[in-house]
Design a protein that fits this description.
Blueprint: H1 5-13, E1 19-21, H2 27-30, E2 36-38, H3 58-63, H4 66-82, H5 89-93, E3 95-100, H6 106-119, H7 128-132, H8 136-145, E4 151-152, H9 160-173, E5 179-186, H10 191-199, E6 230-237, H11 239-244, E7 252-260, H12 273-286, E8 295-297, H13 304-318, E9 332-333, H14 336-339, H15 346-360, E10 362-363, E11 389-390, E12 395-402, E13 406-413
Parallel strand pairs: 3-4, 3-5, 8-9, 8-12
Antiparallel strand pairs: 1-2, 5-6, 7-13, 10-11, 12-13
GO biological process, one term: fatty acid biosynthetic process
Pfam family, one: ketoacyl-synt
GO molecular function, one term: 3-oxoacyl-[acyl-carrier-protein] synthase activity
């Protein structure tokens, strides 16, 4: 995955994959059962890669954990694209920030724990807690730009990015802000994190020698998700406020649905009831029917149970009352085949892909989809396998689900 939305979007639509081998990063990585990850490549900004020194002062680089650095740079890109860099006090007071993370700075905890065990109190950095706190991503963005509106953070596992955008949209609806910078960031590609997910049997382990083929949403040979890192940030704005200043508008957040599986810590309900309720509520808020949905960006992480449950939920909703006449009319894809699973950043990054797909009337592909699902699960929708498709898209859903059974669905509508 490249740094910057334009490079990332182009690579996605071109069918390129950002997943690489991490076996040679260290001896610890080489011993893990899953040795693939979607990394933000390090290098020069001109090449679309990540170098914190090109974006941050030395002081800011010290103060911010990597996930917060990603959030800061992504926020800057979003604000510049929106043309919203206010200086007037009245504008600063109505601009807020809502940025979350699923895990945050795990390496900070790990390294500080080792240092403390060896040297005690004096080996703990005074920046330890500020770098650790998930809400500091939003805090740093607020401080850099002087935004004095709501300063908030969600941490709801892999639903974080979607919750951040949905919650921020409601802060605008309730009049708490006119503009919100919203999204998620994650950077925890660490041996400890991978060990934990692997022990929970969540990660892909059968494709270590073929990293670009390892994330296989909806495919019969899928065997787990591929951990990724990055950030996705959008600028949300009250419609009249945006229109009056001549802002570039990509889409409307038309609906936002939330639900709980109320079932298990890590496994989804096989019947997909939670995702179904989230999508149903998103369409209800938008005042739309299932048949109005042109595209769904699925959460589909490449796990056996999760992909099947979501597929079941999508078909139940979109083939139900007011829906499509046959499964082949349902356009659904998972961009995790290209970028892996960004955990707390997944929902916001995938919301951006959904909106860009609407803007350009193109459906992003599901990479590595050779044999959809299992016949018993009836994987018979259009999963946009391996190559992008041109499709007029006026209404789209973007789904995100997380450990603990938390679900969210964002409904976007073209204006």
């Amino acid at each position: 995955m490249f740094a910057g939305v334009r490079q990332t979007w182009k690579r996605l639509i071109d069918g390129q994959c950002g997943i690489v081998s991490i076996k040679d990063r260290s001896a610890e990585f080489a011993l893990l059962p899953s040795q693939v990850a979607a990394l933000v490549p390090e290098g020069q900004r001109a090449e679309g890669k990540w170098n914190p020194k090109e974006h941050l002062s030395p002081a800011d680089e010290r103060r911010m954990a990597r996930f917060a650095q990603y959030a800061m740079v992504a926020s800057g890109e979003a604000l510049n694209d929106a043309g919203w860099l206010p200086k007037k006090e009245e504008d600063l007071e109505v601009t807020g920030v809502y940025l979350g993370s699923g895990i945050g700075s795990l390496d900070e905890v790990y390294n500080t724990t080792l240092a403390y065990e060896k040297g005690g109190y004096r080996k703990v950095s005074p920046l330890f807690v500020p770098r650790l706190l998930i809400n500091l991503a939003a805090g740093h963005v607020s401080m850099r730009y002087g935004f004095k509106g709501p300063n908030h953070a969600a941490t709801t596992a892999c639903t974080t990015g979607a919750h951040s955008i949905g919650d921020a949209s409601r802060l605008i609806q309730f009049g708490d802000a006119d503009v919100m910078v919203a999204g998620g960031a994650e950077s925890c590609v660490h041996p400890l994190a991978i060990s934990g997910f692997a022990r929970a049997r969540s990660l892909a382990t059968e494709w270590n020698d073929r990293p670009t083929e390892s994330s296989r949403p909806f495919d019969r040979d899928r065997d787990g998700f591929v951990i990724g890192e990055g950030a996705g940030v959008v600028v949300l704005e009250e419609f009249e406020h945006a229109k009056n200043r001549g802002a570039k508008i990509y889409a409307e957040v038309a609906g936002y649905g939330l639900s709980s599986d109320a079932y298990h810590m890590t496994a989804p309900r096989e019947d997909g009831q939670g995702p179904h309720l989230a999508m149903k509520h998103a369409l209800r808020h938008a005042g739309l029917k299932p048949g109005d949905v042109d595209y769904i960006n699925a959460h589909a992480t490449s796990t056996m149970l999760g992909d099947a449950a979501e597929n079941r939920a999508i078909k139940e909703l979109l083939l139900g009352e007011g829906g499509k006449s046959k499964a082949s009319e349902i356009n659904v894809s998972s961009t995790k085949g290209a970028i892996g699973h960004l955990l707390g950043a997944a929902g916001s990054v995938e919301a951006i892909f959904t909106v860009l797909g609407m803007h350009h009337n193109v459906l992003p592909p599901t990479l590595n989809l050779s044999n959809p699902g299992d016949p018993a699960d009836e994987f018979d929708c259009n999963y946009v396998a391996n190559a992008a498709q041109q499709q007029v898209t006026n209404v789209a859903l973007s789904n995100s689900f997380g450990f603990g059974g938390t679900n969210a669905s964002l409904c976007f509508r073209k204006l």
